[in-house]
Amino acid sequence: MSVSRYPESESVLLEFKREVPKNEQIVKTIIGFCNQKGGKLILGIDDARTIVGLPEDQINQLLETLDHSIYEACYPPIIPLISTQVFGDKTVLIIAVSSGMNKPYFRKSEGIEKGTYIRVGRSTVHATPSMIEELKWQSHRIDFETLPVYNGSLDALDNQLIQNFLDNRKNQASAKVTQDVMRSYSLVVEEHSKLFPTYAGLLNFGKKPQFFLSEAMIIVSHFRGIEGRDAIATIDCEGTLLNQFHQAHHFVLSRLSKAFSIAGVIRDEKLEIPEIAFREALINLLIHRNYHIKAPSKISIYDDRLELFSPGGFSGPIEQDQLLMGLTYLRNPAICKIFRERGLVEKMGTGFINIFKSYESWGLEKPQIIEGANFVKCILPRGLSQVSLGKNQSEDDILSLFYLQNEITSQDVVNKFSISRATAQRWLNSLIEKQVIERIGRTRNLRYRRIVKS
Fold first, then answer.
1. pLDDT tens readout for residues 125-178
2. Burial class (CB in 10 A: 0-12, 13-18, 19+), 89
3. Hey, what CATH topology would domain 14-139 get?
């Protein structure tokens, strides 16, 4: 006889308990659901989704008292919908709540600072002060990006950057920079008869965005090996979001390996990972991160992977198996609109689809998306070690460096491929013997240059 199992799995919207937990744990979970997108706590199901049920007398007692105890323990008050469901000879208890309209919800006995809980993945965790503040904005339908920056003036916005955007919008006619146009894009907001720039305005078109949001930047680091300890090179990508995109995109692609073959005068070059995957991951990092959190975004390059770290969790109840369904929740709709009209975003919700499909089409290891307590991390496996590129790959690797610079040193080869100096020298000597490259200078000034044959 097969064991009956519940048809759904635990998620940000669903949690199972085999037995009835203490009242305070039930309250914390229900508060977490209310502060997010709602959800259900089901008692009588174990972690393996096996339906074990609850005793009838225990269910009757909970039906009589649980809704009142939850109501009394929470502020603002929460009124759950409590019901039972029968599976054969087993009965489970379901406690359901919708997303709250008066966030943040918290336990009265702990107060708002210690008693506010949220759902992160399949867990209920304490909300940080910045999360609590964001919950307050959500209850008033306010996005952080559209808040006024009181210590900024309209002079902090670069009108020429705005005009360039308006002249080059995708599928849009050109327009002049006016206050009405800036309002329509949430670049400015009026308060007490005075116009202030918004965070969205400064991030997209500010002269010095980091003066107002010092951590609104991307730190990109290339590490030796597979752990983040020995940095080969690091760059701080600052300025507007568009500038950060171009800086990070160029730096990362310059650090990745390329394989190429030459037939006549035609050079066929292939990056070790799908460029569209990194591009989509980088755009997602820029348009969906939580800019209220005072921490930079980070991109780490390791020998076997890229890691893109974005402050703030998903802005909606998204599970990993839903990423390929095109579901998306916008934390920064104004920023998303500007990126879309720039042509950097084709269609909302397709970013992760493009990432996973491009990796699948190349036959590479599947990317990973990890949601933590207050961050999202996208891991893109590097493909160089997974794809056979021919017996002369080491030579091709070195030659690929000459498409980035005219001359190289042995240290460039060591740094790029995390190999010993002896191995780098052996690769270089092999190319010299084949008269593909030549030495320039001596000792400390020794460099290598590709031989151009007529």
1. 999 888 898 898 888 888 899 999 999 999 999 999 999 999 999 888 889 999
2. exposed
3. 3.30.950
